[in-house]
Amino acid sequence: QVQLVESGGGLVQAGGSLRLSCAASGSMFRPNAMGWYRQAPGKQRESVATITSGGSTNYADSVKGRFTISRDNAKNTVYLQMNSLKPEDTAVYYCNYREIFRVGHEYWGQGTQVTVSS
């Protein structure tokens, strides 16, 4: 089991910045990937950014150049720095952990609300 605790969401004006954090604990194996997904009202959950334990990153086209994902493997924590926020970034953001070679070993955080006002 892996537990994920997110923090850092909130309300910000368009053009502002927020930093999300997700601390993982429990039985973690490598290689793994951690990432952020988001779900806006009435929409499907979508991938925002992911980073592997080796440091490879992947971003949704809609956030490239504005968001940066990073991780501290010693602290089992992943971060999402969000700059130049737009109202369309408003959503519940979920942290995700999955083990690359162990199918089914995937866990989700409880979600944190990000609201961007225009």
Description:
- By secondary structure, the protein is mainly beta.
- Helices cover 0% and strands 57% of the residues.
- The protein is built from no helices and eleven strands.
- The strands form two sheets. Strands 2, 4, 5, 6, 9, 10 and 11 form a seven-stranded mixed β-sheet that branches. A four-stranded antiparallel β-sheet has the order 1-3-8-7, with no helix packed on it.
- The radius of gyration is 14 Å and the shape is globular.
- The N and C termini lie far apart (40 Å).
- The relative contact order is 0.32.
- The model has no long low-confidence stretch (mean pLDDT 96).
Structural class: mainly beta
- The gyration radius over C-alpha positions equals 14 Å
Shape descriptor: globular
Q: Give a count of the beta strands, DSSP E runs of length 2 or more.
A: 11
Taken as a percent bin, the fraction of beta residues is over 45%
Structural topology:
Layout: E1 2-7, E2 10-13, E3 18-26, E4 32-39, E5 46-52, E6 57-59, E7 67-72, E8 77-82, E9 91-99, E10 106-108, E11 112-117
Parallel strand pairs: 2-11
Antiparallel strand pairs: 1-3, 3-8, 4-5, 4-9, 5-6, 7-8, 9-10, 9-11
